[in-house]
## 1
Amino acid sequence: MKIVILGFGAVGQGVARVISMKKDYLRSKYGLKPQIVAVCDHSGAAIKEEGLDEKLLLETKTEKGKISLYPSYGAPGVDSLQVLEDVEYDCLVEVTPTDIDDGEPARSHILKAMEDGKDVVTSNKGPLALSFQELGDCAGKNGVELKFEACVGGAMPIINFAHETLAGCNIESIYGILNGTTNYILSRMANEGSSYEQTLQEAQEMGIAETNPYQDVEGIDAACKIVIMANSILNLPVTLKDVDVEGISRITSESIALAKKEGMLIKLIGEASPDALEVSPRLVRQGSPFAVEGTLNVATLKTDLADDVTVVGKGAGSVETASAILSDIVSIWKIRK
Amino acid sequence: MKIVILGFGAVGQGVARVISMKKDYLRSKYGLKPQIVAVCDHSGAAIKEEGLDEKLLLETKTEKGKISLYPSYGAPGVDSLQVLEDVEYDCLVEVTPTDIDDGEPARSHILKAMEDGKDVVTSNKGPLALSFQELGDCAGKNGVELKFEACVGGAMPIINFAHETLAGCNIESIYGILNGTTNYILSRMANEGSSYEQTLQEAQEMGIAETNPYQDVEGIDAACKIVIMANSILNLPVTLKDVDVEGISRITSESIALAKKEGMLIKLIGEASPDALEVSPRLVRQGSPFAVEGTLNVATLKTDLADDVTVVGKGAGSVETASAILSDIVSIWKIRK
């Protein structure tokens, strides 16, 4: 399977790393031989029809900062759409940074690949949160797969779980902690009695919160994930603007202490159902599956037969997110082979 | 798909109920038309080539106590092996009561069906805990499917999750709360400071613990599940006698209170890895995915790429367990159609 990777930040590098790590496993277990035939970053591309070397890709990026400096096969200034036009491949891995205003450039990459009859795996929330139905229709029309497990909680594989493992159940609603940064901040506030501002600053110093934490702490990131799950699991044709969003920046240590006295915790919860599409701080009970701490993500599916089923996993991390992309690649391979 | 159900207690009746509930869904989503062509209980059988009526099956059992009194198609005294010999069917649903001494009669039912080239779905832990490898070999030799999601935590679908959803990951170990009765008892002891004996008695009065609670409270039920997961997820050829088992009957309210002071809980934990096969009471941290209360089950898979991934769900319940059986039926259908 010939793969093009667009975007070579933490997730793109994670994908190269896991493909390198799992070559023997994939070949022996599934007969799958993934070949990375092109990689793009802001500097240009590295392109090799017979497959680039994953370790050399990672070395080039780490040591030289630009993928276009890949020995002999670097292509400075060649842009992503050009690569999709010129290179022969089977599957696009779209892992450029998320943009939630217009979803670009990921949206154009994904549409171009699908219109050319290629399967797509992405971790990019932007295009899906803004125009899920358009992308889904395009995939259907062109008979290609569009997979996006990595968009919703890196290593909390809730989407494929809903479609594959719960095949006999109808899923009625989704409820979850969908953002690791806010869960980390709220957990530390609860355990240490510290203020929101102080805890956020410490989380930034530790690299858990970003320098500009707006999308995380104001619930936008969680809202994107709720939109993607609402569309793909509940078949609700909604977009980001349909979500009522409230973040955690106004939560005080006093309100957390008060909740704690009653055996409760405050968590930033996303909910999707035919009646509600919302991200907001809510009380959860100690001892419930939602009482998890740290950067963990958790999502509960309310089903008609199995009652509530919950998945807990790491919400972020380069290799963890890449593992979701790899699972998507494997499931495409199972269909295509 | 023609289905024979052996055993018509809570789980068997749940299967009839979910098939009845989900007929339209299964037909429109998967093109699957399940037909129950025979059902056996201790009294005999009900057999009808064109398919028995699910509601009439449930009515007959509830009102008359014997499935052999099914109108016009009852067959008093006809036993299970005879049914498997005489009836034309595609898939056996084996849901007779679990026996952990010799696994019978389920073991003979399952072997007979597989040797006749039929697929099997079971919720029966006995045969799998005692002779997983033999049954797996028999399935392989006869080219049939043997599925058993319902054996391990009714509505906590960890086995198919491991095989399908985490397709790109290697799973290194399994760790979980695998018995709802003991989790319920330990949760109440922690919340109320009550003694083991008193809490067990109340759980029995509520129907959460059985009259003879030995297999639950002494960890045998959890050990069976650990054996099944070790075989099917970790490929370890172990049986029940390989598990070190310690139950919860010697846990005092004092030790639980002491743990609680340090932000810990005592839970009955099962572990399977290449180095350990064990069920025993252990300390878990408040705020971890293992701090769940009530009758919930939880299992964590330690993976090479996605770190720890956890599934939480109801461990028991007629319809919940039947939902796992239905998911197995659907996945067999996807292979066969």
## 2
Amino acid sequence: MRRSWRIAVLPGDGIGSEVVGATLPLLRHASQMAGLDLNWDMLPWPSTAWHEDNGQMMPDDALAQLSQYDAMLMGALGDPGPTSNPNRYLLSDGVSLSPLLTLRKGFDLWACERPAQLLEGAHQYLADDRARDVDMLVIRENSEGEYVNQGGRLHRGTPRETATQLEVFTRAATERLLRHAFESAQRRAAERKEKGQTRHFKRLDGSHATSQVCLITKRNALPEWGELYTEVFEQLSQRYPDVAIHHELIDAACMKFVQAPWQFDVVAASNLQGDILTDLAAILSGGMGVAPSCNLKPDDRSVPPLFEPTHGSAPDIAGQHLADPTAMILTAAMMLDWMGVEDPAASDAAEHLRRATEASLKARNEGSTLTGTDNISQHIEHFLAQR
Amino acid sequence: MRRSWRIAVLPGDGIGSEVVGATLPLLRHASQMAGLDLNWDMLPWPSTAWHEDNGQMMPDDALAQLSQYDAMLMGALGDPGPTSNPNRYLLSDGVSLSPLLTLRKGFDLWACERPAQLLEGAHQYLADDRARDVDMLVIRENSEGEYVNQGGRLHRGTPRETATQLEVFTRAATERLLRHAFESAQRRAAERKEKGQTRHFKRLDGSHATSQVCLITKRNALPEWGELYTEVFEQLSQRYPDVAIHHELIDAACMKFVQAPWQFDVVAASNLQGDILTDLAAILSGGMGVAPSCNLKPDDRSVPPLFEPTHGSAPDIAGQHLADPTAMILTAAMMLDWMGVEDPAASDAAEHLRRATEASLKARNEGSTLTGTDNISQHIEHFLAQR
Ligand SMILES: CC(C)[C@H](C(=O)O)[C@@H](O)C(=O)O
Ligand SMILES: CC(C)[C@H](C(=O)O)[C@@H](O)C(=O)O
């Protein structure tokens, strides 16, 4: 059903505003081509506020304002602090990131999804050519776990100083995460079937399934939540007999993401372990220059999801218009995909944007040495205009 | 100074006893060639005890017995549990690993070191040929942090279940870890200089250093210990002005281990983050089949270090003599290196063992399709005999 969409655009810091600037005209163009009714407002809330102003990074009513929108499209957050600090790239990067966690927590965007698929023309880091077949979805728990920010420092600065940080995992959050992982596996298998494709995942009893969920824990060293995850996983799996189950310890999983990533389908992980695996997944997709990501509340479409490239604000190259906008453009396409569940025009727009980006990537890979945020964006525009 | 050495050999579980069996004759031979006075006792304490016996995996006086030795050489620990459990590979692997943590904690082996260097003939996973230049040392905190095993499960099995796990970091352990990292960087630069090699690491002010320590944290999401690590790092760095300093967040570090690992020198990380990075470092060295590791107390040579391959007990192939013993043989060479600080004969033996292993790897890579634990060991023996 066609409808109208309102999105909040948050350019953020550093290269964020550059890649957003390069993306919006393409998003506009692709939407017009598809007849998609898409509107946006720019919300310029850079985190430079924390050192230039009163330390506040978003207005007090930020969440209320943002909840008026259907989705959020963000460039990048992260500012290394005042330029007067010579070690600013090295020794400070924490302070200005909190808005990201505020948005995730404020809207209970409990899942972070990052697909890994090597687009034609994207850089292949692995020597084995099966790296071209990588096709996985990493689903990260985004609301609790290692990121509850409960901790402190005792006897600060003294030889007996002790810092603590608590990890908190609930069965409720574990269940919704893993249920979503199983459902995503089923959906992916159905999509493959529609395209006439199948994949086979071996079960322990020798039989095969057409999709798989791999659970990640470090239950041999962090047993409490590792066993909770394992128990919930085993229980839920009985409701999804068509999906094969698998488990990897986080250290082995990182290794296997480099050794044989084509073996994975859906991967479900905790907040920190998912953070690590999604960065590795980005590399498998061709690097930070092309890796989109999404924070969402899968069980409630009325809550605006937050779409952002996996890359950060890259303060070292900010202001020079050197950043590759491809990841941001693919992030916009991911947002269109999400809208496409309700509105076929959005799916069409996503298709236009993604195909043009792929054509550009392929052409760039075949010899053109195109660099520069705006040059790349114009290159993609060229392919969009041809569609 | 020549002296006599006593080591405790702990074959452990699964492929552990197979690779140990394949390594000891070579260790004997190399020692004899070098005139090294080396003796060992076999301590067969497999963790199968936990399901076959009373759940106890080592005798009560294990630590007392082991403290009589100069070093420990372990195959692998980890048993998937009773064969009667059909999901044993999938859903249980925690229980039997505790002896490893018991040994690390019991002897306060607070550093775990895993070098990454791609031996000639070892498998290159990365497409970029600079992967051959990788030369780093990952030093992992091995005594606290995420692995303090303080946690619990509240309202177990109910919808409101909550699992917690505490992370505890002390300034004392952080200081000894990072001091050791800086000293290791200096030692590595001196060793390079001796061989007529230099590496250059850029500082923020544009100048260059001949070695570098890269600190790993996740201080933007786990600020308490991340800031403690950063403060201690900054303070200590002033005492090592010849060493360049660098910082990476764990997610970015994993990415860079795949994108450009040749840029790293010494990498210092917490227990869990180090666990992850050392597994990736193993891949950079050519995979689990060739990756040695060591747990030690760098400030006290009277405490026996624990040498073990990075790989686990691989229950899926255990009993079939399929495992590559190379990692175990290189672990034995790492042990000889450690002895070599006091006893030149041990350095000679390490040299023999390592060169023969490299020659075999190279020959195997050039076309021979040798497999099987004992075949590979005999192949290496052949090159040892030629020296
Ligand atoms: C910026 C940081 C707090 C964040 C995270 O760890 O979640 C980032 O790495 C990400 O993956 O989105
Ligand atoms: C077996 C496990 C507890 C251990 C660890 O995490 O330390 C292993 O992965 C390792 O790296 O030695």
## 3
Amino acid sequence: MALSSQKSRLRDINNTGFGPNSSVEGGRLINSDGSTNLRKRGIPLWERTSIYHTLLKMERSYFFLSIFVFYTIINISFAIVYFMTGVEHLVGAETAKTFFEQFSEAFFFSSQTLTTVGYGRVAPTGMLTNCIASLESLLGILVFAVVTGLIYGRFSRPRAYLLFSNNLLIAPYKQGKALMLRIATYKNNHLTDVEANVTLALHVNEGDKKVTRFYPLNLEISKVNSLALSWTLVHDINEESPLYGYTKEQIADSKMEVIVNIKGFDDHFSNMVQQRTSYTYKQVEYGARFLPMFERATDGEYTLLELDKINAHEPYVFEEDAVVA
Amino acid sequence: MALSSQKSRLRDINNTGFGPNSSVEGGRLINSDGSTNLRKRGIPLWERTSIYHTLLKMERSYFFLSIFVFYTIINISFAIVYFMTGVEHLVGAETAKTFFEQFSEAFFFSSQTLTTVGYGRVAPTGMLTNCIASLESLLGILVFAVVTGLIYGRFSRPRAYLLFSNNLLIAPYKQGKALMLRIATYKNNHLTDVEANVTLALHVNEGDKKVTRFYPLNLEISKVNSLALSWTLVHDINEESPLYGYTKEQIADSKMEVIVNIKGFDDHFSNMVQQRTSYTYKQVEYGARFLPMFERATDGEYTLLELDKINAHEPYVFEEDAVVA
Amino acid sequence: MALSSQKSRLRDINNTGFGPNSSVEGGRLINSDGSTNLRKRGIPLWERTSIYHTLLKMERSYFFLSIFVFYTIINISFAIVYFMTGVEHLVGAETAKTFFEQFSEAFFFSSQTLTTVGYGRVAPTGMLTNCIASLESLLGILVFAVVTGLIYGRFSRPRAYLLFSNNLLIAPYKQGKALMLRIATYKNNHLTDVEANVTLALHVNEGDKKVTRFYPLNLEISKVNSLALSWTLVHDINEESPLYGYTKEQIADSKMEVIVNIKGFDDHFSNMVQQRTSYTYKQVEYGARFLPMFERATDGEYTLLELDKINAHEPYVFEEDAVVA
Amino acid sequence: MALSSQKSRLRDINNTGFGPNSSVEGGRLINSDGSTNLRKRGIPLWERTSIYHTLLKMERSYFFLSIFVFYTIINISFAIVYFMTGVEHLVGAETAKTFFEQFSEAFFFSSQTLTTVGYGRVAPTGMLTNCIASLESLLGILVFAVVTGLIYGRFSRPRAYLLFSNNLLIAPYKQGKALMLRIATYKNNHLTDVEANVTLALHVNEGDKKVTRFYPLNLEISKVNSLALSWTLVHDINEESPLYGYTKEQIADSKMEVIVNIKGFDDHFSNMVQQRTSYTYKQVEYGARFLPMFERATDGEYTLLELDKINAHEPYVFEEDAVVA
């Protein structure tokens, strides 16, 4: 395959944090949500998992479901303990006769203690029950301290809130072609000093080995002062580009992966934020160009950014391909 | 119009994050409060809004009003539920006979549960009512966790607390003129390593198209070690300046916009802070100079910064304009 | 005075954020605690004060006293309201007959509501009293949310925890002299990538005006990778130095001020921290050198940093001064 | 000893924050957990200890034990106060006759007040007891505010979660040797823009003094864009290296210490993180090379990082050593 030798005059880079040895790495390097396509093993799950990271990134519905389940489990556990130490030590619960009634009283007393609501209709007496209740209320405060922290951590976590176009376009640019993708902030956030970093991973054959080579893709503009509207990242496929001279078929064959990393400073979080994504060769749209995604409001007083048009593009036939057809 | 060609030898910049195409952008680019003059659409409101950002930046009175309204709504909702499951399951509320009395008892029981105050004069009995109360107290803790986080987030949010002068002055400087504006920190905060970045947006005609060109405005001093007193930002309108040779009338005609971005490190927040504003041609005061805004205290022991004088300036007649008059 | 002309070949700097015009600035620029010797006026106190900054930096004892006073005031206010709406609406407080007893019951009921402890011995009945209690419990949660945030903000506020020597020494160095000061971290913290920035402010006469000139003081080492032991900042008073050739008397006459700013990255806070101080000419110790402040532990296994020796120095007579004497 | 002169052409550095004077420093400089091998004295313990730092870094089990002990102590203290002001002022506790019963009631009333659970079975009456209870509930809120903050601070504290190999290997590299160590992130975290900084501390004899010289060790790659897999840090021992020409015995003799500092930006914390470690000459494995620690998953769809293989290496006999043997 001629591709690798053709590239030889270009300097590849080896500081991506990924190895060059394709035979030991599997599949794409970065998933499209920006996470690494990697699993770890060799140390126990709880040691290799950051519970904080996990709870921070968990889907909102699962997060609240987890809290609810956890709350129920703690209450059931304490209900069992109160039941075993004797429901007669719960003043106000004496009328409960059946197992179910007694267990219910114990369960609800537990929940009133854990949340520190403590109505007092049912209240503990006796050394042991009082001790347990005292511990449970302490536990309640600690547990809800964690939960408070987590909830705050979740919604205050600095994020870039970036929308990426679904496809990489090979679009007309100057006299030739350029690789383009488009990003936009989709919330009422505002990034400043935004930098884009695009790396190409090419899986090529060298001799009889299959290796991965990484090339930085130069952008026409790689840093903007302010990301307010959309930003089209443009990599000119000129003689400097590792993609120079690739045909539509060669791109499909190359199993290439394009890793995009955007970072900037967010005003409201007053913090650096970062978002990453990756495109595989399957997402490359050869011969296409983006349509504008913002327009002047009808009254001319402001600009309107249409987020649903982030992927909007039209086909474009390159001269050379037209000749072929 | 000669302006655009006159500028041709100056390098304009295209990394502002705004497009050059005036015909699709409407009105000023940045509002004077630093937000972008932009609206987004195309994805649902809740997806394109960061509730955290919104609640963080909301006016204080609206914020607390929102909490109050939200609190009332939750209590009314739970009151309805308790009423429907039967007020007879609320021990202590049996004396309530009329609908209004019963609903009130349900409402106040709800509020006592939500805030976990739980006096116990009214307390739940029975499986269903107990379950609801147990859930409500959990909800209360979670809701107030969010509120706690928000309140903390609001008052601990790093901000630059900068006052900008209302006007851009075209003031005498060296042999010629300079564009000046003045900033000062107005709280007991202290910024270090403060950088100013000023960009000029000019809407000019190129051929039959109206385009926006961006030019960085060089400052005499663009970085100070410490922002303690006021700081007058000075852009010398010399031959290097995109504003060189502009007359009073041309400035008014140019529809120019000057975007100012200040960033620095705040001691107390131990964080980078940033503040932005924008001036339109209407805010340019041609022929004026700032009056001092700080003075030595009468006892000579400290310096006095007079924040109400941030805009204080006196008119100044340039020689060339005087000749004309 | 020859000093100013003598300095003329040295480049002074004007990006310190302080003005050159001594006649309008009073006293020293920076206080020894690092704050600016500056007062602000012209806008109302509450607008020019960041309550957050103030409460964050307040002395611990005052802070907790403020909370206590605030707590008492709120309770008294609500006690008045409950008393006026009728103590008869507080079930359990009917036995209170005298004004004092009734007011006490109202006061303690208020405190039980505000803290959401809600024993229920005294509990609200009736629409109005219930409404007030419901509002008070909400207020309690919000107020303590602020307090929680503040307490957390106070003890988690990134700080450099640096100890500065009390004096600037003019010490022997190489063949000549150097200005030296010493810093050390005094808590179990560890700074990395620590930078020191030292600026000299000289109040000199230029013609008939008294002006302030600022000179950066070059340090032999201005950045260390890690600040673990003490660090002696050394400014060699060679021909490049604005202090070159100053005699003991001239230094005392110069009314000089040396502003020191240290910043670094703190491991535990995972944040940039910064600390500033300033020395006036009164704190300059001419002819002295620091004594070591760390030593090898007797068992040779660790190093011992003696923080009480931060100021330890011994006198040193310079040859030229000895000749004079 | 020839070593020091041999090194003379290499520039050593003195900005490590450690002094060159071995005779006053004891033992290794950095412990393997990254802390400095240093103790401080001369100011009181509470002034030289950051309680926040201590509680943040305390072992989890000790932390929760401390909370429990603290909780018990506060309750016992208040129980004593309530007991001394008279248990008869605790309504509901009148049935308690013995000292033990009365003290228990006081203790549990205290815990119910501190946690604001306030069942109300036991409730305060009388001015004094009410005052104490009112203060205790305020204290409870403040104390648990601190605890909430600490717990949140503990689990949200930005950390690098890096695993370091136990040994430094002197491994074959190019035609010669290299010093190698290996790192990997062991949790589900992801670092970007990761920089490694390696410093060699050599204790050498200069004349009759024993001094410590510091040399930066150049790495083949000292910065990676992304730390996803493992990263082997490689210092080529070529002519530029301070370790050039060292034999196995000389390394053992040198009492060398290698300080490694890694910093990067963590996505989830959105913060800079940093981790440090240090190797002594005892941890140097002469003649060995790392075995791969990641592999392609059997289905080829992802990469598998085996954390238990971080230390996996095989012996390697250098030609020169083989000749000797």
## 4
Amino acid sequence: MPAEIHLQAIGVVHSPRQVAEDDHWGPVLSEIRLESWLPEESLYGLEDFSHAEIIFFFHQVPEEKIETAARHPRNNPAWPRVGIFAQRSKNRPTRLGLTTVRILRRAGRSLFVQGLDAIDGTPVLDIKPVMQEFQPRGEVRQPGWVSDLMRDYWEKKEAGA
Amino acid sequence: MPAEIHLQAIGVVHSPRQVAEDDHWGPVLSEIRLESWLPEESLYGLEDFSHAEIIFFFHQVPEEKIETAARHPRNNPAWPRVGIFAQRSKNRPTRLGLTTVRILRRAGRSLFVQGLDAIDGTPVLDIKPVMQEFQPRGEVRQPGWVSDLMRDYWEKKEAGA
């Protein structure tokens, strides 16, 4: 039997986005508010980093939507069938999300960030500072479909779009 | 009450390292073997990426070692007291580890990787492909103590050291 792991959220996302959308996450400003079991000082020093990695839980994905096999990303037949672990889709076995955000400021029990692709109310499981030394070592290579899929992911929404 | 989240490991690490050590993780070669509840095809396509992010569970950290406040990284008084979320230490509230590894090859139900700083037997919670578009947007800034702390983290161990 694989290990069963029980985690308690360390914070919650406050975001203007109430509904999961595929694209336009770059300008989104969010607040991560600490849960009460953690002291304010657990966040001390994050303001000296430009970026943080946020691990969160896709709490609105129902179990029956979880994919364990290979499929076309976003069900687009123009892209190859790849395994769920070769995608960053939310319908993944452990429903963990992971995104690098820009740190705007820390204030009391809150961290204010830009570019967090998690909707309002999302449980946060960890915050880690981005360190140069934890960036990929060696050149990053990826298949061609990724750039297609990611084209509008961070872009600002066009007026009227 | 914060959300309680129950996760099942998706894989396990097979590593030559049996004991947690602070440094010299760069050359370490590991195998991540899928748990039996997941099909082999969940890994399809990972071989077209150079790097993956591995989320794992520091299963050997006992609850009483978990830090929730601020402290000197590695208890070194030369470095400033910072909160646990401004560090990547394993003694963190949810005991989640996160590392970018180089993908060497996929074979059946296993992914072979280099530079995974997780000991033998570590439960793996997620594998995500590294996409250029998920790299930090904008310049990465960090405080001076980080480079000191990370000096030998990935380096090969010197003979006799």
